[in-house]
Amino acid sequence: MKPIAPKAENNPAEEEAGGILSIDLAALAANYRALKKRAGGAQCAAVVKGDAYGIGLKPAAQALTLAGATTFFVALLNEARHLRAVCPAAQIYVLNGLAPGMAGEYRTLRAEPVLGSWPEIEEWDQFARSVSGDCPAAIHIDTGMRRHGLTQDDATAFAGRLKTLHFKPSLVMSHLACADDPKHPMNAKQISGFRALRNLFPGIPASLANSAGLLAHKDSLFDLVRPGIALYGGHAVLEAENPMKPIVRLDLRVIQVRHAQAGETVGYSAEFTLKRDSRIAVAAGGYADGIPRAAGSNDKRAGAEAVVAGKRCPLLGRISMDLITIDVTDIPETGVKRGDLVTLLGEGIGVDDLAAHAGTIGYEVLTSLGKRYSRLYRAG
Ligand SMILES: *Cc1c(COP(=O)(O)O)cnc(C)c1O
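That is the input. Now the predicted structure with pyridoxal-5'-phosphate docked in place:
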């Protein structure tokens, strides 16, 4: 694989960085194509909010566009601006809706707010009345999430006002709260509720499914699907196999290998006691780089692992801001030395594995990927 795309601004050189974050854009494109296939007749959009779940908005959007994506979802107007700079022809939706007073800027960027409350609808409608030409926007209806979106009564009232509006909704959408758990009764409730509501908006495309909806709920696909985490290789559906390819790999530089004796403790608060004479590799990444602090270990519980010279090795003690300590006693002396790389993500360790050791989810591990790494984007 060859590196592509300009490296991010201020991207440190590999020799200077504590870690190397490699992002496989060919795998991202393959994931998009696989999801698009599963979407059948529905359009497959791509959710690229949160800097494309931490991997980098611009390179991700370029790779997804080459793979065939034409519709994108971001969370914020500012993200829409960055996206527009690399995708001049894309349809862009802004999930968090209309930022007050900013309607003109959405229109300039050709970004469509996802309107999820009366105040947003009123503001957008007044703006649409004041300008000539179309002002498309999406409408979000709440079917159970109780976060964003019109209530079902308000959606019904809104449907009655469609003819008097100064803009035409381009999409009617809702969001699944429990799609990662296929057995949860909320799914069927939301899907049937949404089916009834979308009928109030004839001729307007409808969208409900996130990654888990797309992968586990065939009846949630409607006209357009909105996968995010699955594009980035994350595990969307609990208790099912993850069919997606991993796209991130994280290697950290060893800054020293040291010896310590049985009975001594490692790290802050002396919470991990060595049970044998040990060799410890100290590697240059910590919670300031997004490695979850909760993934450390102590005398009561094991923590995350790293792959060193082809072998899984446990992390010892707490994760510091800039460093982790790894038990390499089982690796031959010649197998690991200062300057070598150890793998925290990759070689069979996925973002969800690291997340599980920290009581969090792959989404959070991805979106926390640090800014101090040397980032390498690779295409096939
Ligand atoms: C983030 C988000 C998605 C994508 O969800 P994934 O679980 O990452 O696939 C889809 N729709 C909405 C409204 C979202 O906020």
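The mean pLDDT is 96.
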